[in-house]
Design brief:
Elements lengths: L1 E3 L5 H14 L11 H8 L6 E7 L2 E10 L8 E8 L8 H15 L4 E8 L3 H9 L3 E12 L3 E11 L1
Parallel strand pairs: 4-5
Antiparallel strand pairs: 1-2, 2-3, 3-4, 5-7, 6-7
């Protein structure tokens, strides 16, 4: 089940965010950021939204979504997703992405753009392709991967 993030959820969302960011393989966030810094980045204010994917009382993943840019760019949405290591491969990321697409479509966004998908994150790239996204450009060597060195960052887009 996917539901709106509630303030008490942060205690269970932060370990997921910390785990993903500390790995340094997919998000261009500072691996040393604090829970307070992460909260300010991850929890979206309106018109954006933050959600959690839950199974019973366990939080399996989280997503944030909103306008990609303000003003003249506000008709295009964006979203980001994080799934707990123990929940990967179970469709949580797919459910979160579909939820974000539905949310954006219902609000009249013209499309959804992902600004920085590491090309080495094959699972995410394939998931986004299955859901209709295409790579519209790649910035070569823009992401310093801890094992692979510098890899490209894809910009991916889908019309709604």
């Amino acid at each position: 089940m996917i539901r709106e993030f509630a303030e008490p959820d942060w205690a269970r969302v932060w370990p997921i965010v910390d785990e993903v960011v500390e790995a340094g393989e997919t998000f261009a966030y500072d691996p040393g950021m604090t829970a307070e810094q992460a909260y300010r980045i991850w929890v979206e204010a309106p018109p954006g939204r933050t959600v959690v994917a839950v199974e019973g009382d366990r939080i399996l993943g989280t997503a944030k979504m909103g306008p990609n840019r303000p003003g003249p760019g506000a008709h295009v949405s964006t979203a980001s997703f994080m799934v707990a290591a123990g929940a990967r491969g179970r469709g949580v990321g797919t459910a979160l992405c579909r939820h974000a697409l539905d949310w954006a479509r219902e609000r009249g966004y013209a499309g959804m753009q992902f600004n920085a998908v590491t090309e080495s994150n094959r699972a995410a790239v394939e998931l986004y392709r299955r859901l209709g996204f295409g790579v519209v450009g790649t910035v070569p060597g823009a992401f310093a991967h801890p094992r692979l060195g510098r890899v490209g960052l894809h910009i991916m887009y889908r019309e709604l």
